[in-house]
Prior knowledge:
The protein is mainly alpha-helical. It is built from ten helices and two strands; from the N terminus they run αααββααααααα. The protein is elongated and about 65 Å long.
Amino acid sequence: MGQHDTSRPLSDAVHARLLEMLGSGEFPQGARLPGEHALAGRFAVSRPVLRQALARLQAEGRIETRKGSGTFVREAAASPPLSLAYEPLSSIPDVRSFLEFRCGLESEMAARAAAYAGPATRAALRRAAQALEAEAAAGRPAIEEDIAFHLAIARASGNRFFVATLAALAEQMRFSIRLTRELCTLPSAARFAEMQAEHDRILAAIESGDAAAAHSAMAAHLRGGIRRLFGQAN
């Protein structure tokens, strides 16, 4: 597995590597995973450590064990049911509160992505960033691509609760993005250039593994949204 990050349990690192395998398509939905002995050898860990990581994946609903057959990637793994529900945004103060909430939530999410993302999730994040940039450069709204970029960071964090929370907030994100763009006094080209620079700093910090810089870059990006809408950073 290479050099181990001693700041977290070894089973967390194995879990992250397994998530990469599932996300990369190496083991698509319905596929049977290799046996414990093969996987433990692949990651150079003991079988008890591997079992902890597999148990976590099973608890998250990503894999299932069939007695006598082995362990399989669950068909529903790509779209787990969400139990979160948030009320729609109904006022300008609501939007401000929402952006402040996102600032705290997503700054920590970006820091974790920098600390824990592996090659596959970082590649997915780069693709999301490129899709967002291409849509914006073509003069299209790129609202869905903007949301997808933030969701890719949530997935890169390796924490399913960040993913579930951000997915549950998608409609509120759409509303706040549209409102910010409608009310922002900056010309659209200048606004997109500013946002692109903010996204670039987030991506660079995550790719370099700098958790503190990722935290700061995400906070600056979301505070920038507050400033663009309300004319002040705080």
